[in-house]
Specification:
alpha+beta; binds zinc ion; 18% helix; 164 residues; five-stranded mixed sheet
Length: 164
């Protein structure tokens, strides 16, 4: 499988270009660690555009199914992956070190941007830290509190996703 790259991300964004493809889960080395199985393929679409301020952006959309490990019963569980993120392209490396949590996500507009790496990075950002079966479908549900309170990690993950 040939490595897909965006040869010139700024040109890609200004020209409102897009590309799509798919990646086997097994090819994503950093992702595999938290998974019950390496089976499956994810689909992605990358589209370039200029935002209202005229800044070049990449929109990254990913979908697919992952088999993760439920952190309550440690059995496999299906996780419906859905990413829809926007990255601002920048040529200034200093801007990448901006720690402001409200600042937009930026990536360096490097030549020959490797698409697979970008997609994997975006997937890692959305994955829950402590994935678990829905309440009632988990074998370990006896350990859940009756009030339906979320596990602290799950609450944290939810907080994180609410912010996005
Ligand atoms: Zn479970």
């Amino acid at each position: 499988m040939s490595e897909q790259v965006v040869s010139d991300p700024l040109k890609f964004a200004r020209g409102r270009q897009s590309l799509e493809g798919n990646l086997p889960v097994a090819s994503m080395g950093r992702l595999k660690d938290g998974l019950a199985s390496e089976a499956g393929i994810i689909e992605y679409r990358l589209s370039g555009y200029l935002n209202e301020e005229g800044e070049p952006c990449l929109r990254c959309q990913v979908s697919g199914a992952l088999e993760m490990i439920c952190q309550r019963c440690l059995e496999p569980m299906n996780y419906a992956l859905h990413v829809d993120s926007v990255l601002l392209l920048t040529t200034d490396e200093k801007l990448l070190q901006d720690d402001d949590p409200d600042a937009p996500d930026r990536i360096l507009a490097q030549q020959d941007l490797p698409v697979a790496d970008l997609v994997e990075e975006e997937i890692l950002l959305v994955l829950p830290m402590a994935p678990h079966h829905p309440v009632g479908e988990c074998k370990a549900s006896a350990g859940l509190s009756e009030t339906g309170k979320l596990h602290p990690f799950a609450a944290l993950a939810r907080l994180k996703s609410d912010k996005e």
